[in-house]
Every structure is written in structure tokens, then in C-alpha cells.
Design a protein that fits this description.
- The complex is a heterotrimer of chains A (591), B (215) and C (153).
- Chain A is an alpha/beta fold and 591 residues long.
- Chain A is 39% helix and 15% strand.
- Chain A folds into five domains: 4-108, 3-Layer(aba) Sandwich (Glutaredoxin); 127-336, 3-Layer(aba) Sandwich (Rossmann fold); 346-429, Ubiquitin-like (UB roll) (Roll); 434-521, de novo design (two linked rop proteins) (Up-down Bundle); 535-590, Alpha-Beta Plaits.
- By secondary structure, chain B is an alpha+beta fold.
- The longest helix of chain B is centred in the N-terminal third of the chain and has 17 residues, at 56-72.
- Classes of the chains: A alpha/beta (591), B alpha+beta (215), C alpha+beta (153).
- At the A-C interface, helix 1, strand 11, strand 15, helix 17 and helix 24 of A face helix 2, helix 4, helix 5, helix 6 and helix 7 of C.
Chain lengths: 591, 215, 153
């Protein structure tokens, strides 16, 4: 038994920050020191992505931030001598104090890390690690229950679909279980297409067995012997860890024929997405698995009745499936109490954007946006004001700061004009232009639309045209009316959820920030973003003549001499912001 | 789509599988206390379904569909007729010059009725088009012209110049069969090859045109 | 075509495996050559129009040969809010390559990605699979300069 375990976050984000070198160095150093009592472990996403690469030293759970390869010898030495390396500890921004333990860090204290509980603790490529911490015990229990009993538990737990609109999972499982067919399928929807959402990826990277366990329980409940995980091709590490996990599960008898000695068979195959956001929609996903382009079709019939190859198919999101083992193990009551009266359990949000503590946040449903953004997220950086938060990806909408006391739940978000979606939560501050955001999302949607429906294809294209005109200062008052009319028809008459929700970013930005639209029509961009409506200039009073701005200007638009005041030539200026970023005196002004 | 109620459509055809692309045939349905718009060509008829074929919501949606398509293909006769019906004079959007409205009838006809599968939808979203593989002449295209026949906007044209039939849109140019009896060039050879193969009829019998065959 | 045969066999020559087959070909050849697609259609007994349709529908596939090096700029919402459009603009300016295109000497291709899922590092780019986070105009210019210098050596 190792005394000290050094857990290095090996998620894609921390790897991008150099975690691989950190792991290698730890292994090198422990090898050199012959430190037999130290285990170096690569684990899944720890969640506090802003501070990565993260290293947590057990058993104390000392957390180190921004670890580089060169820090490793000191961390190791500290660990072996019962000390801490203070310079890499987290500093509380309000008190200025260093915090040693991961569980005391404000980012974590308000979270309930259940789905992400084993991330950071287990090695995702070790099934033994998972089993030693209770993994697959829920499966054993579920195999002894009848399908009706399992469904009842899921219903009592009030688990709802974690991928989009929150359909009651228990009901979906029941519909599928009751469908008459000797062939049924289970599909895990891991086509996490919302930009800004990466929790599904982190779950599969960090704890793939938890997702498999949920799938297997689902298969047993509905009577399926074949499942698929449909995963984005942009997630190579998640794919790798998933494939490893499937192989291991098969070896140990959790997959394959006669699972754990029962008469139940279940195989899981992996299908890679082809880079199409629309394939997150279940009928398009099914088309893709069937070897056809990802065009959605009319529902009904719903996949629970007629799905993959026309057979009853259970399609659930990664987080939904990963929640199931907890419900079976710890009971529906425990799960449903963590949440609201309508939705039990926790949800993982990717809290990103203009926020200090960017990362994956797992909280019980019902926590308010204010708590999430300020108490966990630490508000916006550089003391800026948070203006709004965008949830639900391109199908969702913006929610303004004035209604941040809204408790996060499916219905409350829908009422505000947005959706829960996959859990993306993008914080926007005063430097974000709402017209620009609407334009950004429509640009995304026009590219990702499959193109079948007139209303979605032509409608979103024309909405984008109008928004572009408005952002260039060429908008007219009647454009706002046209936008609203288009939004209404697109949302009502399109065939699938992509089309139906495409107008949400426009509708919510217009609802809550109409004054920004009006300002653009008057030729101004209050946030200082839309290039046609802003101008860069240098405040002579603040300019020290250092010349930094002139050096970085790609267009040689900054004129002046060192020691004298500089100025910007408007005709050459491309408004890239390089000078503003370079100036240490705040002398570059955007109007 | 039956009897007394007239529901406009562009992409639907009785002989082809329902597709639901144009959205012109939307109707308002109620099940329970929820109402929504669905394309009537694809929505399954269920017992107890309450359908409104001409509510305000329906009319508003159909009108916008026509306006959007008109902006895309201002030259299409069927769209100008529909526009007149809905009282649309000029679309509010910048006009384009596409004659194809992406209804998919040609694709479905070629796949389901002819079985040639010479054309398909390519790309997606705003850049979606109907094309032949690699935008080159397809050796599966038999130039039967069924695509042109079903196209609602006359976007596919067959041109005949003596021995050759051309379908510009599909980059196709094929030799016509000359009737052994009357000397008329009456059908693309490729089409007759296809018919012979599918039906087992000897190819030589197809060297005589339909008129002469009846004599 | 032997490579294509191997890939087809690996997938049991099943028509429904078309997308996976094309992904394997893309992984191997860095794009989907026309003759490979024609060979696949024949080998599977699938209409070529369907194969072509799928090749053009999914963003993962490229019908044009891609450069030796690949720059991917993330244009996800987080990256956008943190300045991705400036990064993309700078890459286009410095390399004179349009999005989705390859440089004239087939050395460098530029693509945008809707989200790489590394939002804490926004704005993010990858160069030949290696991630570079918290980019700004100066950093991207330096990176491209380094690449150009390395090429000259």
C-alpha cells in the first residue's frame, strides 16, 4: 500500500498545459529517489481547469496549481518530508491566504462532486481502481432487481435527461422496456457539440466505467443486447480511454455473454461522430450510425418505439447514464433530495468565459446562478461587471445579471427563454456585445444546419444577414420586427430541435438587451466590439510615449516617436486591439 | 393531403416518400394541451388528433416560407403564384439567383422510382445543393428526365440537339438512340441499356421507338 | 487500393459502416481522394452519390489534400468571447490562407473547430495536434514565425 499518491490531472485541458511532462518528471524523480512509497497517478479532470495543470498529493489532498515540470522535484521533496510547497498553493483572492487542502478551496466547497467524485482519484485506465472504490456494485445490485424495480427507482430519483430538454429518464426507460421487440438498442449520446461544454468529455476521459455501468444497467432493464457510444471525433483521449475501458469490462465479465453469471448478454461498440453538431439530435445520430447523412426526421415515432434500424432504442446523455449507478447504489431518495422538487440529483456545468474560476462545476439542481457564478466562479476577471450568462449552447439563450437569483432547473431556464442543454455556462462581461453574440450563434447554426427545412436553412441565413447588417451599423428599425417574425416562424415550423431552438440566442438577447440593438441601429456598439462602429484612439494625457503600441501594431497604424505622444491613423487601423493589450497605462481608448 | 381540404406543398409527391423539407404543408395539431406546427406530409395520422389546416399560426408560417423561397428563387413561376396567393409583393430579403429550392423531389425520384441514384444532396446548411458525384457527369445517370418532370421550379432542363441530349445541371451529355424504323432520335442509349438490364427485355427490341413499336 | 481493401474488410464490407470506413481512410491519407471514394462505392455496392453525399456532409472529411502542417483555431463560444476572431484574423493575415484551405506550397492548412473542450485555455489553437492556449496576436505571430524559420532549416 502506497503511503503517498500524487494525482496529476491528465485531462485534455491540463495535457494542453504540459501535464504529460509533469507526470514524466514525477516518475523520473520517484524512480531516481527509489521512493517506493510514492505512487504517481494520471487521473481525469479535477475540475478547476483555470488553475491547471493541477496536482493533488494524497493523503492530505494538498492541491498545487499551475504546476510545471521544473516544479516537480520541490513538490516531491515537500511531500516526502511532510511539508507543503507554499508558492504553488491556491491563494484565496479575498483573504490573500494560502489554502492547502483541495476541499477547502472556495471553488470546490459549494460543489457536490458526485459524478466527478472519482475524477482526480482513480486512474481511468484501471478497472481495478474503479472496482476498489465501489465500481460495478450497482450493476450487481441491479441484476438482482426486476426491470420494473429499476425503473421505479429511476423515476423516484427524478432523474431527467442531462443532454438537452430534460425528459424524465425513468419514463424513457419504461417506454423502451415496454416496447415489444426482441431486438433493442442502447445508445450513449456523447456527441457533446455545444461549444463551451466539455463535461461529457471529461467524464468519459476520467471515469469511463461509470458511463458503461449506467449503459449496462439500462440495457438489462429494457432488454437490449447491443449498445453503442456515439462520441465526437474531436475527443481522441476520451475515445482512447473508453475503448480501453470496454476491453477491460469485457475481460472481467461486465460486458459480453452471461454478464456476472446472469443470462444477460450486452456488447458495446463505439461510433465516432463526423463533425456535425446536428448529430447530437437523436434521429440524426441514428441516421449517422446507419451510414446515412445526419438529417433528422419527423418524430413521432420516437426512438423508444422505433429508433436504430427501426428497433426500440434507448438514447441517453453521458451524464444521465453516469448518474444511474449512484441511484441504484445509494437509493432514489438520497438522489432526489439532492435537487429540486422537479429534478433530482446534480448537474455538471462547464463554467467558462469571462469568469475567474473557469472549470467544471458539479452542483445540486436548484442552486442559483448567482451562487454558481460568484461564489464558485469568483465573478469576472479584472474587476469587470458580469453582464449575462449563456446556457444551453446554440440552442439556449442569454440570462441577464438582474435575474441571477433564478434557481437553476429545467423549467426555470426554459421560462427565462433559455434551456439547460448539455450544461454549458458561458459568463459574459461588459466587454461582450449581445448583438455580436447573437450573430456568433446564428453563424454557428447556419453552418451546422443540415439544410433540409426551408425555415431553418433559409430562415437562419436571413437572420444572420440582418444581424450582420445591424453589427455594421446598417440596421433599420424594421429589421428588429423582421428578426422577431423570422424567429417565431423558424421556431414553430422547423422539423427538428436544432431549427426550433436556433432563434433562442436572438430572442433572448433582444428580450433582455434590446437597448444594445437600438444602439447599433443608432450607429453605436456600447460594448466596443463591432468593428464598424468603434474607433481606437490614444488618450494624450495618459500616453507616456513608450512606443509599445507602435511596435505591436500589425498595420503600422500607430504614428509617433519615443518620448513623444503617439496617435492612431484611423484609416489604417483594423481595430485588432493589439495596442490596447500592449499599453500598460490604459492610454488606448475604444469609442 | 386528401379530398376537400387544400394544403399547399412543394416537396411532396404522391409517388415519392414523404420528406418534409419545404415546410409549406405545415398544419397545427393538438394532442392534450400542447399545440404545435408539423409538416402534414410526414406526421403520422393518429386517432384523436386535432388538426387545423388554416389557423393564423399556419398562415403566418406558410407566408414566411413562401417569402424565404421567393427571395432564393425569384424567377420560379410556382413561387410567384404562391406569393400572389399570400399577398407577397416583394420579399424583404436580398434576392438570390437559385432556381433550385432543395425540395429533394429529383433526388427521391432518381432513387426510389428509377433506382439510378445518380444525384444526391451534398454539403449542408446554407451550402446544401443537389449534385452529381464530384460535379462530373455520372455514369449512373440515364438521362431519363424524371428529375426534370418532378421539379416544381423547372430548375432542371433537358436540351436536345439531334443525336445528343444534354442535362446541363448534371453535366450530362449522352448519345440518343436512333429508331431503326423511322430514324427519329427518341431516347438516350443509356436509358435503354438500363431498361433492358432491369427488365430482361432484349436490348435490340429497344432500338425501335415507342410509336413504331405500336405499328 | 490495397489499403482501401484492408479498411473495407476490417469493417466487414458493410454499407452501414460507410462513415467509419471513410474516417479510417481520412486518418490514413489525410484526405479522401476521389478514386478512393469511387473504389469504396464499388466495394460496398453503395451508390457513389451516397458516398459523395456523406463525404461532403461531415466536417471531419476533406476532399482536398491537406498540408503537411495543420493549424486549427478554436472558434467555440468561450474562445470567441476571449478573442478567437482576432487570432483567426491574424493567422489568415500572416499565412494568407483562407479558412478550410491549404497554402500554395501544400505546407500548411487552416481549419476552424467549433470547440476543442479546453475552455480554460481560451483562446486555443492546435498546431499539428499540439495545443497552445491563452493565445493573443503576438503569441500567434511568434508561433508562425518560429514555424517559418524551422521550415527554412
Amino acid at each position: 500500500m502506497k503511503k503517498i499518491v500524487i494525482s496529476v490531472c491528465g485531462s485534455t485541458g491540463c495535457l494542453a498545459g504540459g501535464a504529460e511532462d509533469v507526470v514524466r518528471k514525477f516518475k523520473e524523480e520517484t524512480g531516481k529517489l527509489g521512493a517506493e512509497s510514492v505512487e504517481v497517478k494520471t487521473t481525469g479532470c479535477h475540475g478547476f481547469c483555470e488553475r491547471g495543470p493541477l496536482v493533488v498529493v494524497y493523503p492530505e489532498r494538498t492541491m498545487y496549481c499551475g504546476v510545471k515540470e521544473s516544479d516537480v522535484p520541490e513538490i516531491l521533496s515537500a511531500a516526502l518530508n511532510g511539508r507543503t510547497l507554499d508558492r504553488l498553493l491556491y491563494t484565496d483572492p479575498t483573504t490573500g491566504k494560502k489554502i492547502q487542502h483541495e476541499y477547502d478551496v472556495p471553488f470546490y466547497t459549494k460543489q457536490r462532486r458526485i459524478l466527478l467524485g472519482l475524477n482526480g482519484v482513480i486512474d481511468p485506465t484501471s478497472i481495478d481502481d474503479y472496482i476498489s472504490r465501489g465500481g460495478y456494485s450497482a450493476l450487481r445490485k441491479a441484476l438482482k432487481m426486476s426491470p420494473v424495480e429499476v425503473i421505479l427507482e429511476i423515476k423516484k430519483a427524478k432523474l431527467r435527461g442531462r443532454g438537452g430538454a430534460g425528459f424524465p429518464t425513468g419514463l424513457k426507460w419504461e417506454l423502451c422496456a415496454n416496447a415489444k421487440s426482441d431486438v433493442k438498442y442502447v445508445i450513449c449520446n456523447a456527441d457533446e457539440g455545444d461549444p463551451g461544454a466539455y463535461q461529457d468529455r471529461s467524464l468519459i476521459e476520467g471515469n469511463p466505467h461509470s458511463v458503461l455501468e449506467g449503459m449496462i444497467i439500462g440495457a438489462h432493464t429494457i432488454g437490449s443486447s447491443q449498445g453503442y457510444v456515439y462520441i465526437r471525433h474531436e475527443y481522441p483521449l476520451a475515445l482512447k480511454n473508453l475503448v480501453t475501458a470496454i476491453g477491460q469490462a469485457k475481460e472481467r465479465g461486465f460486458l459480453g455473454k452471461g454478464i456476472l453469471g446472469s443470462g444477460f448478454d450486452f456488447e458495446v461498440g463505439v461510433k465516432r461522430g463526423g463533425g456535425a453538431f446536428v448529430c447530437g439530435e437523436e434521429t440524426a445520430l441514428i441516421a449517422s450510425i446507419e451510414g446515412r447523412p445526419g438529417e433528422p426526421r419527423q418524430r413521432p415515432p420516437y426512438p423508444t418505439e422505433s429508433g436504430l434500424w427501426g428497433k426500440p432504442t434507448l438514447i441517453d446523455n453521458v451524464k444521465t447514464l453516469a448518474s444511474v449507478p449512484f441511484i441504484i447504489d445509494k437509493g432514489a431518495e438520497w438522489y432526489s433530495e439532492l435537487g429540486t422538487s422537479k429534478s433530482g440529483g446534480t448537474m455538471i456545468f462547464s463554467l467558462v468565459g469571462k469568469v475567474n474560476n473557469s472549470g467544471l462545476v458539479e452542483v445540486p439542481l436548484g442552486m442559483t446562478l448567482r451562487e454558481i457564478i460568484y461564489e464558485i466562479g469568483g465573478g469576472a476577471p479584472e474587476g469587470k461587471e458580469v453582464k449575462a450568462v449563456q446556457t444551453g449552447g446554440p440552442s439556449g439563450g442569454v440570462i441577464p445579471r438582474r435575474i441571477f437569483d433564478l434557481p437553476v432547473d429545467y423549467e426555470t431556464l426554459a421560462q427565462a427563454g433559455s434551456i439547460m442543454g448539455s450544461g454549458g455556462m458561458i459568463v459574459m462581461d461588459e466587454t461582450v456585445c449581445m448583438v455580436d453574440i447573437a450573430k456568433y450563434f446564428l453563424n454557428f447554426t447556419t453552418e451546422e444546419s443540415c439544410g433540409k427545412c426551408t425555415t431553418c436553412r433559409e430562415g437562419t441565413k436571413r437572420m444572420l444577414e440582418i444581424l450582420t447588417r445591424i453589427s455594421e451599423g446598417k440596421g433599420k428599425q424594421e429589421d428588429l420586427n423582421t428578426l422577431e417574425e423570422l424567429a417565431s416562424v423558424i421556431s414553430e415550423a422547423s422539423m427538428c430541435a436544432l431549427g426550433k431552438t436556433a432563434p433562442n440566442p436572438v430572442l433572448t438577447t433582444m428580450k433582455y438587451f434590446r437597448e444594445e440593438y437600438e444602439a447599433h441601429i443608432d450607429g453605436k456598439c456600447p460594448a466596443g466590439v463591432c468593428k464598424a462602429l468603434i474607433a481606437y484612439s490614444i488618450d494624450e494625457d495618459k500616453c507616456t510615449g513608450c512606443g509599445a503600441c507602435a511596435i505591436v501594431c500589425p498595420q503600422k497604424a500607430v504614428i509617433g516617436e519615443k518620448g513623444k505622444k503617439y496617435r492612431i491613423e484611423a484609416e489604417k487601423c483594423i481595430k485588432c486591439g493589439a495596442c490596447r493589450d500592449a499599453c500598460r497605462f490604459g492610454a488606448v481608448v475604444v469609442t | 393531403m386528401e379530398a376537400k381540404v387544400r394544403i399547399p406543398t412543394l416537396c411532396h409527391d404522391e409517388a415519392l416518400s414523404p420528406y418534409g423539407a419545404c415546410r409549406l404543408c405545415v398544419v397545427e395539431i393538438r394532442s392534450g394541451d400542447k399545440t404545435q406546427l408539423v409538416s402534414s406530409c410526414t406526421y403520422p395520422a393518429l386517432d384523436g388528433l386535432e388538426v387545423r389546416t388554416n389557423s393564423d399560426r399556419v398562415t403566418k408560417a406558410r407566408r414566411m416560407v413562401v417569402e424565404l423561397l421567393l427571395a432564393r428563387s425569384p424567377g420560379a413561376k410556382v413561387l410567384r403564384e404562391l406569393a400572389a396567393e399570400f399577398g407577397i409583393e416583394e420579399p424583404r430579403f436580398k434576392k438570390e439567383d437559385e432556381d433550385c429550392i432543395l425540395c429533394g423531389r429529383c433526388v427521391r425520384a432518381c432513387a426510389e422510382i428509377v433506382g439510378a441514384n445518380a444525384i444526391s444532396f451534398i454539403g449542408r446548411g446554407a451550402s446544401r445543393e443537389v449534385e452529381t458525384p464530384f460535379r462530373k457527369e455520372s455514369n449512373k445517370c440515364i438521362e431519363c428526365g424524371l428529375c426534370a418532370f418532378v421539379c416544381p421550379t423547372e430548375a432542371i432542363r433537358l436540351e436536345e440537339a439531334g443525336k445528343v441530349r444534354r442535362i446541363e445541371r448534371w453535366h450530362a451529355s449522352k448519345e440518343m438512340q436512333q429508331c431503326k424504323v423511322c430514324g427519329r432520335y427518341f431516347a438516350p442509349k443509356a436509358q435503354l441499356d438500363f431498361v433492358a438490364e432491369k427488365s430482361g427485355v432484349p436490348r435490340e427490341t429497344l432500338e425501335i421507338c415507342e410509336t413504331c413499336r405500336q405499328m | 487500393m490495397q489499403e482501401i481493401d484492408e479498411i473495407l474488410d476490417r469493417h466487414g464490407r458493410r454499407e452501414d459502416e460507410l462513415i467509419a470506413i471513410l474516417q479510417d481512410i481520412q486518418d490514413k491519407k489525410n484526405y479522401l481522394p476521389e478514386d478512393a471514394l469511387r473504389y469504396v462505392a464499388e466495394g460496398l455496392g453503395t451508390p457513389l452519390s451516397k458516398v459523395y453525399s456523406i463525404s461532403t456532409f461531415f466536417r471531419a472529411f476533406s476532399l482536398e489534400p491537406r498540408g503537411r502542417h495543420l493549424i486549427r483555431v478554436c472558434t467555440g463560444t468561450t474562445c470567441h468571447v476571449r478573442g478567437a476572431s482576432e487570432i483567426l484574423d491574424e493567422v489568415r493575415r500572416s499565412t494568407e490562407i483562407a479558412n478550410g484551405q491549404t497554402s500554395g506550397d501544400s505546407d500548411l492548412s487552416l481549419e476552424t473547430v467549433n470547440c476543442m473542450g479546453t475552455c480554460a485555455l481560451a483562446p486555443v489553437i492546435t498546431l499539428d495536434g499540439k495545443y497552445f492556449g491563452k493565445m493573443n496576436r503576438n503569441k500567434i505571430k511568434a508561433l508562425l514565425r518560429k514555424m517559418a524559420l524551422a521550415k527554412e532549416q
